[in-house]
Amino acid sequence: MNRLTASRRLAAALLVGCTALTGAANAQTTPNLRAPHLKPDLTTAEGGIWDQSDKAESHVRASAELDSDPVLTAYVGGVVCRVAPEYCGDLRTYVLDRPVFNAAAAPNGYVEVNSGLLLRVRDEDELAFVLGHEVSHFARNHTFARFQAQKNTANAMMVLTAGITIAAAGAAYSTARAGGPYAGQNINTISSTARSLNDLVYLSSIASLFSFSREEETEADQLGFQRAQHAGYRPGASVDLWNGELDEARASDFPKVRTSEVRASIFDTHPVTSDRIAALTAMGAGVVPAAASPATTADAARRYRAVVRPHLGDWLKDDLRRRDYGQTLFLIDRLAGEGEDLGLLSFYRGETYRHRRAPGDDALALASYRAATVQPDAPAAAWRELGQACHKAGDQACAKDAFSRYIEHDPKAQDRWLVEADLKSMQQAGGS
Amino acid sequence: MKLFGQLCAFAAAAALLVGCETVASAPAGDYAVGTAYRVTLGRQWSDVSAIMVGRPVKVRLLTVDGPLLNRLYLTDGLAPGDFLVKPAAKERPTPTWRAGLSPTEQVEFIADSVAALDYERVETQNLRPATFKGAPALRFDITAKTQGGLDMAGSAEVAQVGDKLFVLLYLAPHEHFYAATLPEVETVFASVKPGA
To answer: What are phi and psi of A285, to 5 degrees?
Structure first.
């Protein structure tokens, strides 16, 4: 019994060690703001991280996902410079055609912005907050801080697990030497306690790293908010952005996505969105923009739409390939709420229903294609799909008219011969 | 007793090897794609179906120089609900074949499936009529890029027979490999005949 008591004391002492480990990463001092135009020596650990970032940047330059529109890239880069004028010469912006809400700033100053983000922000103010957030990771050298935290945590974990193993081996040896009727049982208990403690050390160290990551994200939210506000952007944009993300997550077809934004885990890299909204709301309370706000919110949205309009169709097509139809419909409804691009948006609403094929979706698709084709910006494919939808619904007159208009709108379409064959068979069937 | 132990070890190893699937030779001549049809290979190919990660049961994958340099997908009839590319996660569904898709939607099914194989900028061109076992089919060309930016080219034939979709899909890097194997692929496409 004495041995068991000793092993419990050992366990308690090591548990304290584990708790200390949890705080090990958190106790790291975050580096100060980096000075502009600085590049670390390549022989240092930080220089190594920069070198890795340089390699990642060269991959991005060759990537098929790289958007080739210089106007769009210059626009996004301009917003980066506006929120981080001191680093303007250090940051290089790339737009990537990826249908996922994300952006990142690497330690060497390359900034990547996904088209999925540009599709979701409603105006430049929301974009400025995100870019301010990413630039803050760069300015605070968060990547290097995380690297240091990982290294320190790994070292601490190694020391603790070695200590647990050695202590357990010692306790087991003493128990064996003392002998007695329960020696074997006590050794098993010591062994299983040591295993559990080592597992606990491992999990604690992983959790501490995720906790550190969440703290960095919270700090970047705060600094990004300040940067955007200082550059004259609308203070409420950050909250609007995250509320939009929350609403979109709720609209997902997938239960896991619907709960992902509200269910916290110690293994999350980012804070829960609702917590971010609460923090940013508190930050924005009573804040008056430092400089003149860029006109009204509606004007800002219209100006932003004018920038992304040439890409809207491609980005929606990419988004549709994610096959989360609930989210795509949510996005389309929100974009249509601005009252612009209704032909294109109605077409993609029809496309979403056509792909989803839930009960009643055929009729919804037909109505959407109809709505699209009365708008001047309807793509030619809207006529073809209207024809298909009418044909499916048994409305041959509508189908013939829509197919004819499709050929008028896109006389060089690769499927013209197919549509003409359909038209011919419908005319023969109708006796006309 | 020692001999018995060695025999047991040999039998166990043999059983394990039998369980292992690996690359098989697909020699020139008839190659059966399920029970529905056969094609004639003009040269030896490698059947890498067994090592194709997440392969749907009805999809066969052949290659000459390795799957990154040329790949030929041959599907037995995909039934409604089947896919050409197996989804990696529930939240990342891949295109599913459904009966009654229009010809344009059949082409779209292939393009979206190629995109689900992590190719970028997938486009189809030169849509034209073809025949598959005497039934009307669609033939078209494909361009795409790997994520690293390599230009890919492809050609596909699809035929809906009843409620099933039959797919022959060839993909290769545009540089050298596509053109080098295309004549053989054309031979394969033209050789479809009813299964045994």
So the answer is: -60, 120
Q: β-strands B29-33, B24-26: how paired?
A: unpaired
Using CA of residue A293, residue A295, residue A298, residue A304, what is the dihedral sign?
negative
Spell out which residues of chain A touch residue B116, defining contact as CB-CB under 8 Å: 321
Q: Which of A101, A107, A102, A112 is nearest to A76 (CA)?
A: A112
Q: In whole angstroms, give the CA distance from residue A139 to residue A91.
A: 11
The rounded distance, in Å, linking the Cα atoms of B77 and B112 is 18
Q: Are A146 and A214 in contact (CB under 8 A)?
A: no
How many C-beta atoms lie closer than 10 Å to residue A408's C-beta?
10
Q: Which positions of chain B have pLDDT values less than 70?
A: 1-21, 196
DSSP state of A85: G
Sequence-ordered alpha helix ranges (H) in chain B: 2-19, 103-116, 177-190
Q: Are A148 and A154 in contact (CB under 8 A)?
A: no
Q: In one letter, which amino acid is A150?
A: Q
Residue ranges and CATH numbers for the domains of chain B are 2-194 (3.40.1000.10)
CA distance A61 to A78: 19
Secondary structure of residue B98 in the 3-state scheme: coil
CA-CA distance, B120 to B152, in Å (whole number)? 10
- What confidence tens digit (pLDDT) does each residue in B128-167 have? 999 999 899 999 999 999 999 999 999 999 999 999 999 9
Look up residue A45 and give its amino acid: A
Residue type, position A118, single letter: L
- Are A64 and B149 an interchain contact pair (Cβ–Cβ within 8 Å)? yes
Residue A344: predicted pLDDT: 98
Identify the bridge partners of residue B139 per DSSP, sorted by sequence position: B128, B157
B26 strand-pairing partners:
B45
> What's the 3-state SS for A307-339?
HHHHHHHHHHHHHHCCCCHHHHHHHHHHHHCCC
* Confidence at residue B2, expressed as pLDDT on a 0 to 100 scale: 52
CB of B103 less than 8 A from some CB of A: yes
Parts of chain A with a pLDDT under 50: 1-7, 9-31, 291-292, 432
Of A62, A254, A415, the CB nearest to B149: A62
Q: Report which secondary-structure segment, H or E, holds B165.
A: strand B164-173
Using a CB-CB cut-off of 8 Å, the residues of chain B touching A414 are 124-127, 140
State the nearest Cα–Cα gap between A76 and chain B, in angstroms.
22
Q: Is A327 within 8 Å of A359 (Cβ atoms)?
A: no
Q: What is the pLDDT of residue A22?
A: 41
For residue B41, the model assigns a pLDDT of 97
Q: Under the phi-then-psi rule, with left for phi > 0, alpha for psi from -120 to 50, and beta for the rest, what region is A341?
A: left
User: Closest Cα of chain A to B148: distance in Å?
Assistant: 5
For tokens 């940051």, the residue is A91
- Nearest alpha-carbon partner for A318 in A96, A65, A70, A97: A97
Q: Counting every residue, how long is chain B?
A: 196
Q: Are the beta carbons of A417 and B126 separated by less than 8 Å?
A: no
Residue A7: both structure tokens together = 């092993």
Domains assigned to chain A? 1-28+48-232 (no CATH), 300-430 (1.25.40.10)
Q: Rounded distance, CA B54 to CA B68, Å?
A: 16
Amino acid at B185: V
How crowded is residue B40: how many other Cβ atoms within 10 Å of its Cβ?
14
